[in-house]
Design goal:
Blueprint: E1 9-11, E2 20-21, H1 30-37, E3 41-43, H2 50-59, E4 62-63, H3 67-71, H4 74-84, E5 92-95, H5 99-102, E6 118-122, E7 131-134, H6 137-152, E8 158-162, E9 169-176, E10 179-186, E11 199-201, H7 206-223, E12 227-234, E13 240-246, H8 260-273
Parallel strand pairs: 1-2, 1-3, 3-4
Antiparallel strand pairs: 5-8, 6-7, 6-8, 9-10, 9-12, 10-11, 12-13
GO biological process, one term: SOS response
Protein name: Glutathione synthase
GO molecular function, one term: ribosomal S6-glutamic acid ligase activity
Length: 276
């Protein structure tokens, strides 16, 4: 580890200049690797590849902390981690491949699907893409057809999740450094995402927002997350349930708090001030 007084802060995030800036989507030759190896700290973009992330983590303190993201990738990885870490979430079955739904192999275990309706999610997807409400056999056939096409592309894995009836909103809780910001995404129907016409509400049910903040703060303390958007629903008893964690997330709801870029720069400066 280089001495702090002579070592630069190296940024690969175009929103932060650092002492030295490297383009994360470029190449890493001897010069670039030498710069990284001398860094006092490394700031990475949200789109960082896992190979570069783990290299940076070996070389210097790194922001953001994506250990959880890359140890438990996708919705399948998150579902497994939620169970392992006892994180409250809807009842979920994780499938590493589509085979348990197809039942076309003699060694495939029998998968007992929940009663209709239930939710089916591809391993990778955002803004509601790759997420289907399965209300009957026809919905299931259509979703399986889509999942087959994804599996052919090498995008394997899916989760089967409990449907929470009557939801008109979900709570987005965004963590940026030490800041925790929340707002409701409200829209009648299954999808509440802003990209699908959902509306932002900052004031609805502050009691539930406080419960959501408490849960997310504890999760981040346990697993080290410091830059992510958490989607929460609530049980009829008002207990928060984590639907998924988004490590690249929408920014519209952050505008009243200074906007994403200002919040990110504040988080990076706080991270750097906390270094020994």
């Amino acid at each position: 580890m280089p001495e702090a007084e002579s070592a630069p802060v190296v940024s690969l995030n175009p929103l932060y200049e650092g002492d030295i800036f490297l383009w994360a989507k470029g190449f890493l030759g001897d010069r670039e690797l030498g710069i990284l190896s001398r860094a006092r700290a490394i700031v990475l973009p949200q789109t960082v590849r896992p190979e570069l992330y783990w290299l940076a983590r070996e070389l210097a303190p790194t922001f953001p902390n994506y250990d959880f993201r890359f140890r438990f990738p996708g919705k399948v990885g998150q579902a497994l981690a939620f169970s392992a870490f006892d994180i409250p979430h809807p009842r979920t079955i994780a499938c590493l491949q589509l085979e348990p739904l197809l039942r076309d192999h003699p060694l495939s275990p029998t998968l007992r699907l929940p009663a209709f309706p239930f939710v089916l999610k591809a391993d990778i997807g955002g803004e509601g893409g790759g997420t289907w409400l399965i209300s009957g056999e026809e919905d299931l056939k259509k979703a399986i057809s889509r999942l087959k096409a994804l599996e052919i592309q090498g995008r394997e894995g899916l989760i089967i999740q409990e449907y929470l009836p009557g939801l008109q909103e979900d709570l987005r809780v965004t963590v940026i450094g030490q800041r925790i910001i929340s707002y409701w995404r409200r829209r009648p129907g299954f999808h509440h995402h802003l990209a699908r016409g959902g509306e932002i509400d900052y004031d609805y049910r502050p009691d539930l927002q406080a419960r959501g903040h408490s849960l997310i703060k504890e999760i981040c303390r346990r697993v080290g997350i410091n830059l992510a958007g958490f989607d929460l629903a609530f049980s009829p008893q008002g207990e928060p349930l984590v639907l998924e964690i988004n490590f690249t997330f929408g920014r519209r709801g952050l505008e009243p708090f200074g906007g994403f870029e200002a919040l990110l720069l504040e988080a990076i400066e706080g991270f750097l001030k906390g270094l020994p």
